[in-house]
Amino acid sequence: MRADQTLTWRGRRVAWARSGDGPPVVLCHGTPWASALWAPFAEALSRDHTVYVWDMPGYGASSKDPDHAVDLAVQGELFADLIDLWGLERPHVVAHDYGGAVTLRAHLLHGAPVASLCLVDVVALRPWGSEFFTLVRDHADVFRRLPAHVHRGVVESYIAGASHRGLRAADLDMLTGPWLTEEGQAAFYRQIAAADERFTAELEPHLGDISVPVHIVWGTEDTWIPPDRAHRLAGAIAGATVSLVDGAGHLIQLDAPVVLAAELQRWLASVR
Fold this sequence. Notes:
Strand content: 15-25%
Helix content: 40-55%
């Protein structure tokens, strides 16, 4: 399932795809990923659901115009509009990493209707970001000018660090590919430079307003966003449940695909 359809939003090209039949489910990716990370799960879930995937502008197959903002505020507004453009009344949403903040902003700050939320190793609570984020934010122009082979090494090392079990060559190629073109290199550092905790600070006071079912899934070996965030997030959302996945890092889709697939199937069956 590839994001091979496009629509235009505020001058941006948004790549997306839809497959299957049944209750709608939207899968939201994070950074520095794209919808391709969700593709096997989308295909499996499409047997019982109408599944939507999309690439945020600045990522994957969507446009990477340097004049377009790619921060979490913009992505949240876009996602709220996407739900309306797709004609979805109350989709179930599964979100990973940045996709969590995007989804929560769309729902809590822009009124996007959802039936349930499954939040997988998400960016939602401060603090987040890494020393690498800070370094890039302070020197983004320098990083954009790195020689291509040096940039490749930076991207591959950074992305590999999100997996606890280690990445297969094919998976590393899938994750790094969009960032290795000239356009992709600039976009890679631009989206990191746009990272700002104020975008989650704005939504944190509203977490207690969530009234739909929420399930939180987290890898116990996530070094990017430690698993204590799962319990903190559950404590902020009334009725939220938590599942910890042993032996999985931040790239839980690749570290524990069978466990995650079973977890998603079980959760969506419970809220269908």
